[in-house]
Amino acid sequence: MKVGILAVQGDFEAHGEVLSKLGVEHVLVRTLKDLDGVGALILPGGESTTQLKFLTEEGLEPAVREFSARGGAFFGTCAGAILLAREVHNPSQHSLGFADMVVARNAYGRQVASEVCLGSSKLKPEPLEMVFIRAPVIEQVGPGVEVLAESRGQPVLVRQGRVLAATFHPELTNDTTVHEYFLRMAANESSAGPERARTKAVQSS
Known about the structure:
By secondary structure, the protein is α/β, with parallel strands linked by helices. The protein has helices at residues 12-21, 48-57, 60-69, 79-84, 177-204; strands spanning 2-6, 26-29, 38-43, 73-77, 85-89, 99-104, 114-119, 128-133, 137-141, 146-151, 154-160, 163-166.
């Protein structure tokens, strides 16, 4: 399976390095043609409003929505998680709405310092290293959303069907656990076909 990485700005190169380490074919997505043959798409950290503007101006948003309708898998980190949310506030902005969650963009104010911590998750017995950089906060999740990891009592890694969202940056660590989980998830969802994806969407709505 080929994985696309939205390559507007932000840390898309770091995601590419992780995929290369795992031996996964990937492509940097900047045009509609770059989506050809892609089975999963990573929305990296960076500036969510800049990425939204790019998706709109380059005509990529309709293609991304069509990709979702066909059962494509998504992984959003930090700004990417904001793009995937159903509702975004503080301040409010448009989003793709692929995951039933409410996200606050500037919950911690305009801090510039990063934070690295260890937290438990459902992905492995050992603690998961989490790098937070001006992280958004997942304030609410719908009944169809599974919380895979928490930090300080708040969800930081969640999944809904073919969508995975993290408020931290797993690509900035040496631990490939989250990316490996996403690849397995994407492979399983892709093999299920678009009909199952549509059924899941209806059940979770």
